[in-house]
Every structure is written in structure tokens, then in C-alpha cells.
Gustatory receptor (Caerostris extrusa), 397 residues
Amino acid sequence: MDLVISRYSFKYILLFTSTSQCVWLLVFSQTKRDWTEFILFFLQTTAYISVYRSRSEIRLLLKYISRLSKLLRYNGRQNIFRSSVLIYCIFTALATVILELTYYYSKIRDTEHEVIRNSSFIPEILKCFCMVVRDISFGMVILGLHCTLVSFPGFYCFVCKYFNLKLNEFLSTSKILIVQKDYRRIFKIYQELARVLTFMDDFLCYSAFVFVLCGMVGLFWSICSFILFFDFDYLIYFCSFVVSMHYLMMMQMIILPASDINLGAQMARDVIISLPGWFPQQYDELKIRIRRGLNKKIGLTLWKIYKIDKSLFISAIGTLITYGVLVGTHKNFDFWKKKNVPFVKPYPFVGSVVQNLRRPLHDTELQRYQELGKIYGLRLRLPEGFLNSLCWARRLS
């Protein structure tokens, strides 16, 4: 019985979270943040289902990788992986706990409770119960997102790192085997490496694509949220920062190790193609053997669409941060406009200063500038007296 519960507990969590999120979106949701969370949760759930259905392939992959250790010499750096996996699990578990606590003490929870209290769809008797269910549901969303965020990127990263270590061992071993004129062993090791890498990409490419896509969406929306939260709840700022760092780490753990593998696979292919030049007596035989399939380019991809390289990480980070800041600033401006804040220009103290100094300033206009000074002083973290002094200097002139 305990085995059955432990085996299906995460599935029950996903089912409960998906159902409660759908009810919240249909009945109570008033923000786009809820839809973004649901989309991310849905995409990561599909990736989890894809990985869960590939359990037998994962076992075979681990067997194939262990077989590579017999073909290549032992490297002492392999002992680092155990401690790295342990540190990674502890760090991500602490991040999950911090996010859970941040939500329960932030204003997001109070806002959602206020929405439930003001709802006309729920009887007064059930409102307290709905608040408790919402707290549990949101906690399950964080738990479900981070369980999937932790498990697959961690597995993908460490498998890629280990396989990249084997590629480096192949490159160093091939130089020794060329001196020993043992090209048959070089072909044997490369064929095994190519077979394992192709097998790995066949069933992990979709999950890698989904998690990179979720990382981009999550990073974009966390940057927007960092700009959009204008009530100065520093817990929300901290939560947005932690979430953005988590999604950034997830993208990094998928893109950078996979790009290293693709670079190492290209270098290994170059070694195979150069073998006929090292063995001119067997030139024709080696050429025929290479053309039978060993000259094919291998590597890790995103759903067989895009071959992973490091430029994807740099371009994605720059684009997402830039557009996140722009969209967040635009939404922030719309918010203050709906509040009937008296905007004259985006910043009234910047621009035609000489013309403003020549024109007399009325008391009502001075009061308006002082109100704007308080608003911008808070939003830009500028001293309030600095903006007021500009208004008084203009009046005295």
C-alpha cells in the first residue's frame, strides 16, 4: 500500500493542482499572472508525462552510458558528480521552501483571499474553506512546478556532463590509438558514442524543447512582474527575483551542457573524417567505412527543430529581459494612467527647462508638481526634497 501511494502521489498532486487551477481561472481569475502559471504548469506536465512514458528508455540510456566507461579509460573527475547531484538537490529544495513561505506572507495571498470574500458565486459558509483550498492549491502549484523543474533539467544536465566527459576521453584516447595504429578501436568507440547520443536525443528532445520554452516564458513574465508590482511589497520583488533566477538556471542547465556535447560530437566527427589521412595504406577501406554512416552529423536538438548551441542562450536572455522590461514599463504606465495621475510628460523636470523657468508657476501647478515628485521619488527611489526643490527654484526664478 505504501509503495502504491509513493508511486502515484505526484500524479495525485498534478491532478488536484490542475483541477483547482482550472476552477480558479474560470471563476475567480482577474489577472494574466494566473493564466501564465497555468500555461507553464500545463506545458511542464506534458513534458513530465513524456519523460514518464520513457522510463524504459532512460534505463537503457544509463546502461549504454555505463557501457561506455568500459570502452574508455577511467577518469577521477567522475567522483565529483555524486557531490554535485547532492548539492543541487539541497539547493533546489531550499528554493522551493523559500518560495512557499514567500507566498504565504506576501500580498498576493491577501489579494486572492479578498477576491474570494467578495465573490457572489460562493456561499458565506464555504468562503473560509475555499481560502484554505486556494492556499493548498497554490502551494501545490509551486511544488509541482519545482518538482518538474528540478527533476528533468537536473537529469538532463548531469547526463550531458557525463557524456561530454566521455567525448573528451575519446578525443584524448584517439590520439594514442592513432599512434598505435589501432583505427578499428577508434571506429568501435565512436559508433557506440554516436548510437548513445542519437538514442538520447530521440526521446529527450521534446522534453528539452518544452523546458526551454517554459524557461523563456517564465523568465519573461518574472521580469514583467518585477516591473509591474508597484505596491512596494518587497516579498513579491524577492519572489520574482528567485523565480527569474530559477528559470534562468533551468535554461542554463539544458542549453549549455547540450551545446558542449554538440561541440564535442563535432570534434569527434572531425577525428573520424581525418582517419584516412593518418592511414594512407587503408585509405580506400576507411573512406568506404566512413561513407556508410559515420560521417553523419550527430547532436542534441530541441524537438528535432533546432540544434542546441550557446548562442541560443545569449540571444534568449537578452531578448527576454529587454522585452520584459519594455512590456512591464508599458503596463506600469497604463496603471498610473487609469488612476488619473496627472501626467504632463513622462518626467516633467526633463525637457524644456529654460522655457519652464521663464513662465510663472501657479500654486495649483506647484501642488501638481509636488504630487508628481512624491510619485516619481518613490518609483525611482529619489529623495522627495530633490524634486520639490526643483519646483521651488522654478517658482522663485
